[in-house]
Amino acid sequence: MTYLRTVQLSSTCITHKKIRPRILQVNVTDMLLVQNILVILVSFSYLISAEQQNKYEVYQKIQQDLESMKFENEARFMKTDIKIANMKERISQQDEIIRQQQELIERLQGNQELQKHTRQVSVQTKVAFTYRTSSDHSSLGSDQTIKFDRRMTDVSNSYSTSTGIFTAPVGGYYAFVLDTRTLPGRICWIDAVKNGVPIATNYMEAPSGQEDSETSFAVVRLDTGDQVWVRNKVYHGHSCGLDDLANFSGFLLYEDL
Ligand SMILES: *[C@@H]1O[C@H](CO)[C@@H](O)[C@H](O)[C@H]1NC(C)=O
After folding, report:
1. Going by DSSP bridges, is the β-strand pair 159-160/172-181 parallel, antiparallel, or unpaired?
2. 19 lines ligand 1 (CB under 6 A)
């Protein structure tokens, strides 16, 4: 039938018209609807105006055409459904990629923290010293500072032999060892002090003609600039005397980070 072919031709034209994807998304259903209605209207107008003897033939042809139009529509909708499913799949794949990248970023940030920490540890301040007395202190006064004037080792030069005071170059935990020996027959009370407050004590009581020695150890927290030194306390009026081999050592255990 020529008239039906004409209608189909015009509908094909609409379908093949170049439609940009954005417009297609919005209008594909509307276009299809308009096209379908047009085909139906034109077909039925021919049916009504057809000669009585041709009506049955025309009617059959219209039915066939409607049937194929239905299939065509179904196929188009199916294609759209598949496209949507594909898009959903792609979106979920991209979500997964974003999630993995966020994980990676977090791991990298963790690594940076670790590197920062490692750097700090590797540049930790070094403090380690031992000083020794070089002569006897035969008569120590009350609160007199004992100066350890012989430098045995000192990596940070934080102990002053002229003042007898150790000054913490950084905050942290420090360990100190105090090693003293009396002159024969003397009674001594020697304190290691932090900013004037005792942190360790050597108490020695030598019988006459003999010496007595003691060692003490302390771990203390110091802020930068805190001071530690060794001083004599006159115990019950006893005159203290130390021999020339007293040792005072210290080192930094953990630096504040
Ligand atoms: C101090 O150290 C030296 C060397 O080890 C040692 O000869 C001396 O006896 C020590 N002093 C004391 C009081 O222990």
Report:
1. unpaired
2. no
| Its pTM surpasses 0.85 | no
Rounded to whole angstroms, how far apart are CA atoms 255 and 257?
A: 6
Give residue 122's pLDDT band: very low, low, confident or very high (50, 70, 90): low
Q: Are residues 9 and 61 in the same domain?
A: yes
Same domain, 115 and 12: yes
Predicted confidence (pLDDT) per residue in 51-91, tens digit: 777 788 888 888 888 888 889 889 988 999 999 999 999 99
Residues 156 and 93 in one domain: no
Instruction: State residue 162's pLDDT score.
Output: 96
Q: Which amino acid is present at 9? A: L
Query: Ligand 1 within 6 A of 245 CB?
Result: yes
Same domain, 191 and 93: no
What is the distance in A from the centroid of ligand 1 to the CA of 175? 18
Are 132 and 249 part of one and the same domain?
yes
What's the CA gap between 101 and 143, in Å, rounded? 66
**209 and 184 in contact (C-beta within 8 Å)?**
yes
Q: Closest Cα to atom 2, ligand 1: which residue? A: 247
Expressed in angstroms and rounded, the spacing between residue 187 Cα and the centre of ligand 1 is 19
What is the side-by-side strand order in the sheet with 197-205? 159-160, 165-167, 227-233, 187-194, 197-205
Nearest one of 255, 247, 230, 229 to 169, comparing CA atoms: 255
Which range marks the domain in which residue 99 is found? 2-121
Domain count of the fold of the chain:
2
Name the amino acid, one letter, at 129: F
Handedness of CA 42, 43, 44, 45 (dihedral sign): positive
Domain stop point among 63, 93, 121: 121
Q: Which DSSP state fits 52?
A: G
